Amino acid sequence: MNPGLLRLGLLGASLVLLVIGATGFPPAGDAPGPGRATSATPTQTTAAGSAAPSPSPRTSAPSAGVSPGSGPSASPSPSPPPDAAPTSPSGFSLRRTVVQMGFPLPRSSAYRYANNFLQRRGGVPRWYNHVKAVLADGTLVRAHDGVDLFARRGSPVVSPFDGVVIDPATRWKPWNPGRYGLSAVIVSEEPTSRGYAALLVHLDRLIVQPGDRVARGEVIGTVGVTGNAIGTPIHLHFELRAPFLLRVREAGLVRRIDAFDPYPSLVAADPKRD
């Protein structure tokens, strides 16, 4: 054989052996040792030519509040705080329930009030008004649904809750603006009173509108004499209403209504009570 051809053949065989050795594949029958890729874990070749394990599929961290392995079900809603207002009519007290809130008038204001909840009032009651009595002819006598806080006209009125302003005509139908006058209704978004509504009535000025979000203590209007407060001592009419209907017996009638006595909550919130 030509010596030159023999040298070329030997050189080619050496190159083939070098390429096979660079692939890193284990010899046939070689059992995978610690750290060695198995057939269940495919390998990929790096830019340098060495074999590297393919990345495993990424797994999401467990959601907050869900134990690993508990499945995709949503975590339960947080329980109300221990001092939260009732979340159902069960055990609700019409005259003693206290709702955590801010006082609707600033401490710097001059004011006075007493509990006149359920006192007799004029005018025909709506389904959402308490009843004081039934006359001989069957006419219902309206009761007072809130407490009056007497203050100077123009005194600032502040929100008792962090919450959202709503139009009362969308919740209590038919709404009677001639009776209530200029009014602000705040629905609480606070954990201790979620869904409870505060009605602040007979305002002279209203500086919020439905859809606004307000903070506890934020000025929302001023004390006035609108609605049927004209001709009476200047006052802020204040109501609290539950996010559910309460079964009450009044004047021999069984009624379902959301208004309850706000006086205990006012006293608890009053910054001057001490």
Radius of gyration: 38 Å
Tally of DSSP β-strands = 14
Q: Globular, elongated, flat, extended or rod-shaped: what is the shape? A: globular
Number of helices: 3
Which regions contain 5 or more consecutive residues with pLDDT less than 50? 5-74
How far is the N terminus from the C terminus? Answer: 119 Å
Helix-strand makeup class = alpha+beta
Mean pLDDT comes to 81
- Major sheet characteristics: 10 strands, antiparallel
Task: Briefly characterize the structure.
By secondary structure, the chain is α+β, with helices and mostly antiparallel strands. Helices cover 11% and strands 28% of the residues. The chain is globular.
Tell me about this structure:
The strands form 3 sheets. Strands 3, 6, 7, 8, 9, 10, 11, 12, 13 and 14 form a 10-stranded antiparallel sheet that branches. Strands 1-2 form a two-stranded antiparallel sheet. The model is unreliable at 5-74 (pLDDT under 50). The chain starts with a helix and ends in a 5-residue tail after the last helix. The chain is globular and about 45 Å long. The protein has 3 helices and 14 strands. The protein has helices at residues 3-22, 177-180, 263-269, and strands at residues 43-45, 51-53, 111-113, 131-134, 140-142, 147-151, 156-158, 163-166, 182-188, 197-206, 213-214, 219-223, 235-250, 253-260. β1 (43-45) and β2 (51-53) form a beta hairpin. With 274 residues, the chain is an alpha+beta fold.
